[in-house]
Design goal:
Helix content is 48%, strand content 0%. It is an all-alpha fold and 224 residues long. Pfam families: Cytochrom_C, Cytochrome_CBB3. It comes from Advenella alkanexedens.
Length: 224
């Protein structure tokens, strides 16, 4: 059952109030090893054209953009690849690639990208007012419009929170915009309890551009 608005707000307040558990590591030591990373590097040859050799992704405001994968949570990437493969997440390019991978290859390529250092990305040009609005949405939300802050689910500094809530800091801004739009129009539906869909529908175009621009400029902490 999806959260009611009241439960959604309370959930956000609890997270913001410090009730969350400590953030998990990007990689679980008992599930990642050098052999898996090496195999994953081989599998990643099919990913380079869109996500680049260093896993930085590409920011293409006028076309499809691809996310930074380097340093993302391993289990989050596994879940997303499986969602593309089983059709619960839609993307013509990714469905084709994910369908070629078996479960071991999915785990291996996720292990590889999780092991990579986080590259710097080129932020989009944005004026001070837009960035200020983005910071407000990311860190405080907009309670008058029932918009919960990004950090309520994605953790302090928007550095990610387990396999369900990926790091947003330092992500390609056009990709963030595309995903918010996908949740808003219902073409992406694999968010936990419909949380992102609920929030995305309350963001107008200016809010979407603002929060994406601000998040892209934030530093990413090295995961231990």
């Amino acid at each position: 059952m999806r959260y009611s608005l009241v439960r959604l707000i309370r959930a956000g307040a609890w997270v913001a109030g410090g009730w969350t558990l400590a953030l998990p590591s990007a990689m679980a030591a008992d599930t990642i090893n050098a052999e898996a990373i090496a195999r994953g590097k081989t599998v990643s040859a099919t990913c380079v054209a869109c996500h680049q050799a260093n896993g930085a992704g590409m920011n293409l405001p006028q076309g499809e953009s691809w996310p930074r994968l380097a340093g993302l949570n391993r289990d989050y990437m596994i879940a997303q690849l499986k969602a593309f493969k089983d059709g619960t997440r839609k993307n013509a390019s990714m469905v084709a690639f994910a369908s070629m991978l078996n479960d071991e290859q999915i785990a291996d390529v996720a292990s590889y990208y999780a092991s990579l250092p986080v590259p710097e990305i080129t932020p989009v040009a944005a004026d001070a007012a837009l960035l200020k609005r983005g910071e407000q949405l990311a860190l405080q939300g907009d309670w008058e419009r029932y918009i919960v802050s990004c950090k309520s689910c994605h953790g302090p500094g928007n550095q990610g929170n387990g396999a369900d809530f990926p790091v947003l800091a330092g992500q390609q801004p056009a990709y963030i915009v595309q995903q918010i739009q996908a949740w808003k129009n219902g073409t992406r539906i694999n968010d936990p309890q419909g949380l992102m869909a609920s929030i995305a529908k309350r963001l107008d175009d200016n809010d979407t551009q603002a929060v994406a621009a601000w998040l892209a400029q934030q530093p990413v902490q090295e995961q231990k």
